[in-house]
Amino acid sequence: MFILGNFLAAIARVLDIALTLYMWLIIGRAVISWVNPDPYNPIVRFLVSTTEPVLSPIRRRLPMLGGIDFSPVIVILIIIFIQSFLVQSLLQIANRLV
C-alpha cells in the first residue's frame, strides 16, 4: 500500500505546484491588464491564451462592477480552495497509506 500512498503524495505535490503556477499566471494577466499591453507581444499572447479559457466563463456570469473585472479574484479563490481541500485531502490519504 505504500506505493499507492507515495503515488497519491506525488500527485498532490504536482497538483499543488501546477495550481500555484497557474495562480501566478492569473496574477500576471491581471497586472498586465492595468496597462495597455501590446497584443502581439508573445508574453501577453501566452498569458491571454492560458488564462482566458478559465476567466471568460466566470466573466460572463459575473457583472462588471464599476468597470472592474473581478474574475481573476474569483479564480484565485477557487485555486486556493482546491489547494486547501483537494491537495490536503490527497496528502492525508497518502499519509494514512504509508
**Cα-atom Rg, whole angstroms?**
17 Å
Low-confidence stretches: none
Give the H and E element order.
Answer: HHH
The first-to-last residue Cα distance is: 7 Å
Counting structural domains, the number is: 1
Total number of beta strands: 0
Helix content: over 70%
Strand content: under 5%
The major pleated sheet works out as: none
Q: Mind explaining what this structure looks like?
A:
This protein has 98 residues and is mostly helical. The chain has one domain. It is 80% helix and 0% strand. The protein contains three helices and no strands. The relative contact order is 0.21. The model has no long low-confidence stretch (mean pLDDT 93).
Summarize the model shown.
With about 100 residues, the protein is mainly α.
Descriptive terms for the model:
98 residues; 3 helices; mainly alpha
List the SSEs and their pairings.
Layout: H1 2-32, H2 42-61, H3 71-97
Helix pairs in contact: 1-2, 1-3, 2-3
